[in-house]
Amino acid sequence: MKLVSVLGGILVALYPLLVFMGLSHDHGVWVFGLIFAVLCYRVVFSKAITAMAKLLRFGAAIGVVLVALGMLLKQQHWFLYYPVAINLVLATGFYISLRAKSPVITQLALLQDPNLDERGRHYTATLTKLWLVFFVINASIACATTFMSLNLWTLYNGLISYLLIGTLLGGEWLYRKWVLKV
Asked: What is the domain partition of the chain in residue ranges?
């Protein structure tokens, strides 16, 4: 079951490349059938215990609807909205966590250090705000790419956005290690 979850996660991460392959070649039925099955699996079998896990399951449900609409209506634009939806779902989750006074990044930090001091809590709350802004900007750019060529949509959503996420993660880690010395 764990292997299926990992493979499903990899396939979801490869969504932009799979969409490109499905729309630009004659593999659409198979590719979109696979994506549909993986997203359905994530909706039905995910162990959504935390609020963020529930939001991600909701994001997968949105993906199921978008892929189903694309396949049933034979309109490719439905497939292109999934990255927009996922970024908005993540932004929503981070925003809700801030409003509930339990920021996502603080929750993750508390798993590693249950005695996180006030300075650490403030830092992780600020970092949660940074990620919220990132997801809103990323959703906006992903939305803009839906009006561009499939090549540009795939380049941004399948590569550039992942590089930006990696840059933010890596930059924050370096900042924490070198500046904060944590």
From this structure: 2-179
